[in-house]
Amino acid sequence: MLSTDVMTLILYLTALGSGVLAGSISPALAYSRSILLGITLMHSVLAGALVGVYLNYMTTLPLTPPLMAVIFAVTASIIAAEAVNRGVSEDTAISAVVSVYVSITLLFTYLVATTVPLGVSKAMGYVFGMSSIVTVSDLARVFISLVIVMPFAHLFWYEYKFISFDPEGAEARGLSVRFYRYLYYTLASIAATTLAMTLGVLLTHIIMVVPGLFALRGRHTYPYRISYLIGTTVVFLGYLIATPLALPPSAGVGIVSAISILYLVLVRRGD
Amino acid sequence: MADLEAHGLYLGYGRRPVLENVNLRLSSPYFLVVMGPNGAGKSTFLRGVVGLLKPLKGKILVYGYEPWKDKKSVRALVGYVPQLMNIHEEVPITVEEIVAMGLLSKLPPPRLISSRIKELVSEVLELVGMKGYGSKFFNQLSGGQQKRVLIASALIRRPRALVLDEPGSMLDFKARCELNQLIEKIHLSRGTDVIVTSHELPSCMKIEPIVMLINRKVHGIGKVKEVLRRDLLVKAYPGMTEREGILILGEDHVKH
Are strands B78-81 and B31-35 parallel, antiparallel or unpaired? Predict the structure, then answer.
């Protein structure tokens, strides 16, 4: 049994890791105008979690809800990326993918509700977050995701920024737009799934967007500094204010995110 | 062998041809102006030249290579400057980063801007009249300056041909004139072949370009006097009207 101090440490380390994870992928979503993709991923995460709950109960296959959520998120991002590469507009591609995954969510909500005891509430845990009961495995999951996402996000950032700026020119210069889109969408799916497991699907919608928007607004050559700063501040501050206000940590993060978004909306950038 | 050849070339999207039955043979050094109204297939032709579009039928050869099949070879020889409307200028990217990518895209990752590349960027920026602008963000520049930066990014590889998609669009006459003179200077001083799309004959140039008048098919190719004739212009520009001997070119979008 872990002591309260150790549990608190795990909670704050997870918060810190989640903030860094969000900060590592958010600029890519903001720069490539793929904020909607992040939202698509959230829908697929929920569908994947529900399918995972159902399969876990009905079969002996090792298809856990987190694993299924990752598989669904990666698949959704690849389908969206391929559709965009084939000339479908990003809005249309994302709408189509969301429709498919919402349908799967509805179907499996029904199946889980009628077959798995407490199955829907378990899946809904992914929607609203389980951050008040952060475990060592949550912490491990966040840091494993960081080890995967961060190096790739930084290694190819310059190319991805150029592709976001001039996709046709990038292709004409020999950069594989398809490869980079797949890569970043896959990294976004891994980050989205991990964050959804700790912060909840609803909050992940916000936390994946806010750091990138700050970085884009600040017009930095290398936006990661601001993205990491905002990502960690928002999550960490959210966890910090949650305790005295007797709120679940995810609610604290939600409040800080809302204030950040209000700042972005109300304070104009001086050019 | 000619340096730019097309034989019964059909280009389009999906199965629908936008440009039909193009035949041409040009030898270096050439300055080709692809003229036609909106939707005539000008950009489509350029995409075929740089290998962004697979021919539906026929063949195109750039310095002996088929762009769609020999992408690597053609991209090393051809510098492409897209239209400004295809650029997402809200992305905060500096002039130096844009120009350097012209070289770095040939190298494996991690693609870092070394001091040698900085020198080359500085040289090419000077050539296009943008010296000292390296640290500026692209969206802080005027339309004419943005075009010069995109040209520099294509030029840094020292390509044999420069392919420019409507470089004069969205510019006032003065900026358009200066840009055309810059392109002419590059053509003359470096012997770079130029293919440029335009709604009109590029202004302020001393050299006489070869004109290819198109509207879904080639209506004429050759010297200005041979091609910009009333009978051919009427076919290529459906919105054209004539008032007391003056021809007014319409800008109506072509219906496919």
Answer: unpaired
The question of ipTM being above 0.90 is answered as no
- Min Cα distance A216 → chain B (Å) is 7
Cα of A163 vs its chain's centroid, Å: 22
A271 falls within a domain: no
Residues of chain A with Cβ-Cβ distance to B106 below 8 Å are: 174
pLDDT (tens digit per residue) in A97-114: 888 988 999 999 899 989
| Concatenated DSSP letters of A249-260 | HHHHHHHHHHHH
CB contact under 8 A, B97 and A169: no
A175 inside 8 A of chain B by CB: yes
* Overall residue count recorded for chain B in this entry: 256
Least CB-CB distance to B82: which of A161, A168, A221? A168
Q: Which residues of B touch A151 (CB under 8 A)?
A: none
Does A139 map to a domain?
yes
Position A129 in a domain: yes
Q: Determine, yes or no, domain membership for A46.
A: yes
Q: Which pTM does this prediction carry?
A: 0.83
CB contact under 8 A, B80 and A172: yes
Q: Does position A131 have pLDDT exceeding 60, yes or no?
A: no
Instruction: Round the average pLDDT of chain B to a whole number and report it.
Output: 90
Domain of A199: which CATH number?
Answer: 1.10.3470.10
**Cβ–Cβ gap B82/A172 under 8 Å:** yes
- Count of domains for chain A: 1
Backbone angles phi, psi at B27, to 5 degrees: -115, 150
| pLDDT tens string A46-56 | 888 889 889 98
Instruction: With H, G, I as helix, E, B as strand and everything else as coil, classify residue B57.
Output: strand
